[in-house]
Amino acid sequence: MFYYSRKGPRSPELYGFLHLDDKVPDGMTPPTRKDRDLESSPSIRALKRFRDYLEGVRAASPHTIRAYQGDIGDFLAFLQEDGLDLGEVDRIEMRRYLARLKEKGLSPSSVGRKVASLKAFFRFLQEEGTLDHDPALALRTPRKPRRLPRLLTEEEVTRLLEAPFPKDFFGIRDRAILEIFYSTGVRVSELTRLRKGDLDLARGLGKVMGKGKKERLVLIGRPARRAVEDWLRERESLRRRLGKVEGWLFLGHKGKGLTTRRVAQILEKAAGLAGLTCRVHPHLLRHSFATHLLNRGADLRLVQEMLGHSSLAATQIYTHLGLARLKEVYRKAHPHGG
Fold this sequence. Notes:
The chain folds into two domains: 124 residues, DNA polymerase, domain 1 (Orthogonal Bundle); 180 residues, Orthogonal Bundle (hpI Integrase, Chain A), CATH 1.10.443. Helices cover 55% and strands 5% of the residues. It contains 13 helices and five strands. The strands form two sheets. It has a three-stranded antiparallel β-sheet, with no helix packed on it. The protein has a two-stranded antiparallel ribbon with strand order 1-2. Helix 2 runs antiparallel to helix 3 and helix 11 packs across helix 13.
């Protein structure tokens, strides 16, 4: 599970992803005998069990699992440097590690994510009986400034959706992707996992598998339904031409599903066609979807359901977005607003 690059010690991000029986990637040297000893160490075995727990019990996404592994791997590398194992970790060691992160110049949000990962890891070890104490229990997540996410105005969204897409396979597909994003507020990972049978266009409903494998229904507006109907005709032509395609709703020209990166590229291209100067990414449309609903009077709980947020606090950021916009309009329009 440890590999070393030609430039020196292995990157913490690789910790936990590469195993000793894996093919050694380009630019990396094979594992040493010391690496093989570490592979069977209690710390690594604990990390593997935690990964199995995240995947099997928590139903965490691959992205979430990679983030946890990277964070915990970085901490285990810190312990390795000091010659410590997990059973010897106490609050002093935890604070030393946080001090090290701050010395490296990590932002409060990055430090906060690592703290959350370690809290989850040590809680798991205590619950399974590996540790009789939780050294991360007293750790506090650093306070980070609350930044409001950038969003598109309704006029900018209209320009994006009315961009001059070509009337071919790719243009029809890409327009349908944009319409689904803005109509439903889905995450990009949810969009790429949509299957053809998940949509009921006649009723304007879609079935989405969200985080933690939680299923929810989303609403599909008329413009999005029309765009998807156009795309389904193109998709069927592709199926007849190739003979067989994958079951995902949105496909590439070879009949395979789209990656999240490919979808992001589609949005960037659409922004260029629409003449937008800001960077348009999938989460930006999700932010805009939620804020526009709230600005037009939608109930916060309803928006929470549509976004698939388990906590209302996660949705409340969008009320602040609406308030910030209101203050901006007031300052510009009211005679005494300045």
